[in-house]
Amino acid sequence: VETPFFMDGRKSSSDDMKELKQTITELADDVLESAPERPSVCQLVEDALPYITDHEERPIISKGKFVELLHEALRTQKSLSSKYSEEAIRSELKEDILKDVLLYLTKMGKLVAFDTPQLADRIVIHPEWLYEVLVGRLLSAPPLPPPYVTYDNGHANYKKACDILKTDYATGEEAVLVLAELGYLFIRGTQVMVTSKLLSGPPEHVWKEMAARPAPAEQPLYRYGGRRLHCKGTAGVSSALFPRLQVRICQVFKDEYEQVPHLWRNGLCVSIPKYQAEAVLLAYPEHKCIDVIVR
Prior knowledge:
Blueprint: H1 15-34, H2 40-55, E1 60-62, H3 63-76, H4 78-81, H5 86-92, H6 95-107, E2 112-113, E3 122-124, H7 128-139, E4 155-157, H8 158-165, H9 172-181, E5 186-188, E6 191-193, E7 225-230, H10 241-257, E8 262-264, E9 267-272, E10 277-284, E11 289-294
Antiparallel strand pairs: 1-3, 2-3, 4-6, 5-6, 7-11, 8-9, 9-10, 10-11
Helix pairs in contact: 2-3, 2-6, 8-9
């Protein structure tokens, strides 16, 4: 999308929001036209979604409940039972196939399923709940009315965040896991880090040039390389894009290298001692680009 949208995200029925939804729908249709043909069972689940969402008010449910509602739709809806055999679907809709179907529908924005062990049994059938409730509470600040999480340079107490984020449909711990999986926050011990709330600049010791860093004579000189990634069109570097990239990199480095990168507003620095390498990512929203530099 090369045209930016400016709107109040709390007003889900506004004309601006309808225009955005229409644009997303058209883009999804374009993707479907060029995508490989889907198996019939995938089409079945998509056709049954309106019944499932109409008959289940909870925004997040178990996978077992989702399958139960799916078969209920097959039994009660003539438009479905005339096209699909429940017996055939039972034999076709194995666990591994259902997982692939749910992840496909997640990419299409129809629902939200997760590929992590902690959330593998949970499915969000009303995606708007994620943004209107969970993300709203996570990112809101005065003068908007509470509840919202309070931060100290992007950091918040884990238990306090859980208390704010819990709802009638999800525990606070589950809500934090969902937001972490979506790339909005990073769990770090007793704290959660929301990178979009970072205020500080880079630490002084990060990424100093060789001439400014005393080193023994035997230490090799750095070799630099990198890329500048430009955003196409007029959209620029979204205020949500780089913070979520920061979260994803934190998650990867915690899992792979058991360390957390240095983070600051519009920047991060990582080092991999095993390979004697460092990298820095710098976002320049005003120039619509991200620099990736390695040495």
